[in-house]
Amino acid sequence: MFLKTLFTKLKGLLSSSRALETPPWEELEEVFIEADMGVKATQELIKELQEESRRRGVKDVSELYEVLRDLLIKLLKPYEAPFEIKDGKKPMVVLFVGVNGVGKTTTLAKLAYKYVSRGKKVMVAAADTFRAAAIEQLEILAKRAGASLIKHQQGSDPAAVTYDALSSAMAKGYDLLLIDTAGRLHTKEGLVEELKKIKKVLKKIDPVFPQETLLVLDATNGQNALIQAKTFHQEVGIDGIALAKLDGTAKGGILVAVAKELGLPIRFIGVGEGLGDLMDFSAEAFVKALLPSFNENRDEKES
User: Fold this and answer.
1) If I label 78, which of 53, 165, 255, 262 is the partner at 20 to 30 A Cα–Cα?
2) What is the DSSP letter of 211?
3) pTM as predicted
4) Per residue in 73-88, pLDDT tens?
5) Domain count, the chain
6) Neighbours of 136 (CB within 10 A)
């Protein structure tokens, strides 16, 4: 299972039998910050942990672990918002945004595969026209996923690709249109303006489009991912988060920071390279993977 580092550190810190008269708050703060939760989210979590421990009458350090698990599930539960194709005007349009290299195109292909597998008609639009390799990559992934593709030549206007894709998807009765955009630094004003133009073109066809602007974040980017999320949300408006690469060197705490500081719905987590490796976000499943109980871990070793 992914994200073993945080569990190992917390197990070492909280499995001792010392009394809570000498609580390990400073040590916990250090562990949480190292896990990419960030200072603000860490301080709030420590405060809640202190209050909940007092409320429950916790006496031993080892009891803090289960309190922490319960608190994290409670914290993340409100942001558990799995993606759904909404009723109403077809197709449902999802605009994928994010910086370079976060796994945006791969995440798009995984979502296409998920819904093609459910019998839905899915189209993808290659609105990343800056790199020929981006169009080729999406073409390969769309074919593997079983989705249709709309593309123009490299260097074409991304908004024009978007317009043609939506017009075609509407005419042919597609259920889902997924729009890939060029990876862009959140600090590059011109490229952010291009995203606004794409949204404007979609809304010109019908104000309901796009129904979802999905920001893909790389879990290994730590606090940079939080900065990206804040800027994208401020500039173009984000409806949901997909957190990619949680199977790699990610520490997992960034998801807590994003939830705590932004309050945005978390749609997906990516846990592998395969097309089937996109999971609907579940607070309970995530926390149990992040922090398996001591007993569960022991049972796994004994079996």
Assistant:
1) 53
2) S
3) 0.88
4) 999 999 999 899 988 8
5) 2
6) 13
